[in-house]
Automatic annotation (TrEMBL):
Residues 6-319 form the Malonyl-CoA:ACP transacylase (MAT) domain. Its EC number is 2.3.1.39. The keyword Chloroplast does not apply. GO terms for molecular function: [acyl-carrier-protein] S-malonyltransferase activity. Transmembrane segments: none annotated. This is [acyl-carrier-protein] S-malonyltransferase. GO terms for biological process: fatty acid biosynthetic process.
Length: 671
């Protein structure tokens, strides 16, 4: 059974707290009085009620008492396996883990209390009895309100302008479930109202030399163990980002904690844990030993020149970057360069960057000219292309890549047996004759095209049922499982007869991935159930959907709102004025007419183009990490990423900055 210490934050203060500790630690008590400017016993007794209602006094008082309680516990029982603190309590946890001495950490807390106490504007609102998904749906309709604390599944705290918070109250009231409780606080903590304070605190943090935690301390921002290199940045973000307390409790439960010990004044966090009760997940089972070599089909390993038949699938918009695939190749793994969503010049530059590198393939970009795409791959020496069955067909360019001159490889990502069948047979004989007649293929090339277009098929989504179904088609093509996120998923795929496995979305949360730090931070917080199918910008008008993150962003809810309005009204002219006002306010921040003016196309389709443009802009905002648009981020992700996050909790790989793409692949196959 794992031991955990929980440290309370502001709100846990009570008159007389810590009195039993002062005689035991006289040196620290005297030092605290010098740093704070008020003797600690007088501050904590607060006989006149003048101190413990002011942020600038409360924070150092609660920290000092919690720090002394931690010193006593360390002496009496030894260190815990994990520690976490709620808001201010995180500083107490970091002190207990030896990241700073008592005086240095107290000075930081005093400064934090001064900055937060001086901040103005905004309010806070507790929403009780509603799950996060319902609250996010409300937030999608009320701009300016942020999640500040996610304490339990049905206990959340919001921050925002007073008028907007009243609008939230009205939405909840109309929904007929849950209740709202305005909080009598002087600061809107963990929200954009703290941005100025965060910038000032960053300057204070710049001069602090932290030590690595002696035991795992979970960050409020990520609900993952702090790493020394990112500690100052996470403490800065702590001012303006939500406290992920529910995620923290879940991690502790999975780690085997059954009853944490609260260190400091009060029992707020202990009661919260007990209230969570059966909603907390069970402990993770101990990992079994697994083989370390020769995994998967020998034919696939030979074809791709890899030790294990574990390949890294492409990520759109160049997220699977030249750096990512080169790092995989250097470590003995194979990766596909992401080309979909890039321009011709961008594809050419990316291919040039990996030319000659070992074990590198590239995705086929169906948006480029067919002949140009084939030329780009062939001229840059690419021997393996990755194709998505739902976005591509047996085009002349693809056939030329596959069969001309030499037998190149085409790995096709599919979701159903029906989508696989098109690629599991040789090309149409009439099309081959046409390609020979036009000089695209030679007669010898056409004769070689008796083999199926696909050399490998990777089954996405429900691969547990898809693998045997596609293998039963009997085409003699290697069949693999795409979207594996843990070593056990890899074991399961091979046990079901997979020839290979293909990693997908989990490679986004790696240092080499070409997406923003903000997107990677968001991805590293996901659990298995934190993704959903949402409108796809490239297939918006026909109802196309793709899996995206739904936690930490409101994109899924906002895009779904646009799609429902599109289904109901169809055209811009038919969109009622009140709905037009709504989406201009919550999605675009400008008139729809202005949006449509920059999107040429057939008349009558302006609404679909405008709504799809929101989805594309949301993708770009996530890739760039656009400040102020975090709630709009469209971040493609699948349950495999959440599974890997869960598997690596409490390890060095919990921090995406430590997750090199090759380390991810090696972890999955047991190297």
């Amino acid at each position: 059974m794992a031991r955990a210490w929980l440290f309370p934050g502001q709100g846990a203060q009570q008159q007389g707290m810590g009195a039993h500790l002062f005689a035991r630690f006289p040196d620290e008590v005297a030092l605290a009085g010098e740093v704070i400017g008020i003797p600690l016993p007088r501050l904590c007794a607060d006989v006149d009620g003048t101190y413990l209602t002011q942020t600038r006094h409360v924070q150092p008082a609660v920290f000092a008492v919690s720090a002394l309680a931690a010193k006593a516990a360390l002496l009496d029982t030894g260190p815990p396996d994990y520690a976490a603190g709620h808001s201010l309590g995180e500083y107490s946890a970091l002190f207990a883990a030896g990241c700073l001495d008592f005086e240095a950490m107290l000075r930081l807390v005093v400064r934090r209390g001064e900055l937060m106490g001086a901040a103005t504007g905004g309010g806070m609102l507790a929403v009780l009895g509603l799950p996060l998904e319902r609250v996010e749906a409300v937030l999608a309709q009320v701009p300016g309100v942020q999640l500040a604390n996610h304490n339990l599944t049905d206990q959340l705290v919001l921050a925002g302008p007073s008028e907007a918070l009243r609008e939230v109250v009205e939405h909840v009231r109309r929904g007929g479930a849950g209740r709202c409780v305005p909080l009598a606080v002087s600061v809107a903590a963990h929200s954009a109202f703290m941005a100025d304070a965060a910038r000032e605190f960053a300057a204070d943090l710049a001069g602090v030399r932290f030590a690595a935690p002696r035991f795992p301390v979970l960050s409020n921002v990520t609900a993952r163990p702090h790493a020394l290199g990112t500690l100052p940045e996470l403490l800065r973000r702590h001012f303006v980002e939500p406290v992920r307390w529910w995620d923290t409790l879940c991690l502790l439960a999975r780690a085997g904690v059954t009853e944490p010990e609260e260190i400091g004044p009060g029992e707020v966090l202990t009661k919260m844990w007990r209230r969570a009760g059966d909603t907390l997940p069970p402990p993770d089972p101990a990992p079994a030993a697994r083989p370390v070599s020769g995994r998967g089909s020998a034919a696939v390993r030979d074809a791709y020149a890899v030790r294990h038949a574990c390949l890294a699938g492409s990520l759109d918009h160049g997220v699977s970057s030249p750096e990512l695939v080169r790092s995989l190749g250097s470590a003995g793994f194979f990766g596909f360069l992401g080309t979909r969503g890039l321009t011709e010049d961008q594809v050419r530059a990316a291919l040039s960057a990996v030319r000659g590198a070992p074990r590198c393939g590239a995705a086929w970009n169906p948006d480029l000219d067919d002949a140009v795409m084939a030329d780009l791959l062939i001229d840059n020496g690419v021997h393996c292309a990755e194709v998505r069955a739902d976005r591509c067909s047996a085009t002349p360019g693809l056939l030329r890549f596959r069969y001309s001159g030499e037998q190149r490889r085409v790995l096709v990502r599919v979701t159903t047996p029906a989508s696989a069948q098109r690629f599991l047979r040789p090309p149409d004989a009439g099309l081959l004759r046409q390609l020979v007649d036009t000089g695209v293929l030679s007669p010898a090339d056409a004769a070689a095209a008796r083999a199926p277009l696909a050399t490998e098929v990777a089954v996405e989504g429900e691969w547990v049922s898809g693998l045997p179904a596609i293998a039963a088609l009997g085409a003699g093509v290697a069949v693999g499982a795409a979207g594996v996120g843990t070593p056990r998923a890899v074991d399961a795929a091979f046990a079901l007869g997979a020839d290979f496995v293909l990693t997908t979305s989990l490679n986004q949360a790696t240092p080499e991935a070409a997406t923003s730090t903000a997107a990677k931070d968001l991805l590293s917080l996901l659990d298995v159930g934190d993704t959903t199918a949402a409108p796809d910008p490239d297939q918006f008008g026909i109802g196309g959907r793709a899996e995206v993150a739904r936690k930490g962003t409101l994109y899924a809810a906002r895009a779904e709102r646009l799609y429902r309005l599109y289904l109901r009204h169809g055209t811009l002219a038919d969109l009622p004025a009140h709905h037009r006002d709504e989406v201009e306010r919550t999605h675009f921040g400008r008139p729809l007419a202005e949006v449509c003016a920059g999107l040429p196309g057939p008349p009558g389709e302006e609404l679909a183009r405008a709504f799809a443009a929101y989805c594309r802009d949301a993708t770009a905002a996530a890739l760039l990490g656009t400040a102020g648009r975090r709630m709009d981020y469209r971040v493609p992700a699948g349950p495999d990423l959440g599974a890997f996050n869960g598997f690596t909790r409490g390890t060095a790989l919990a921090d995406w900055r430590e997750r090199g793409a090759a380390a991810v692949a090696a972890t999955l196959v047991g190297d």
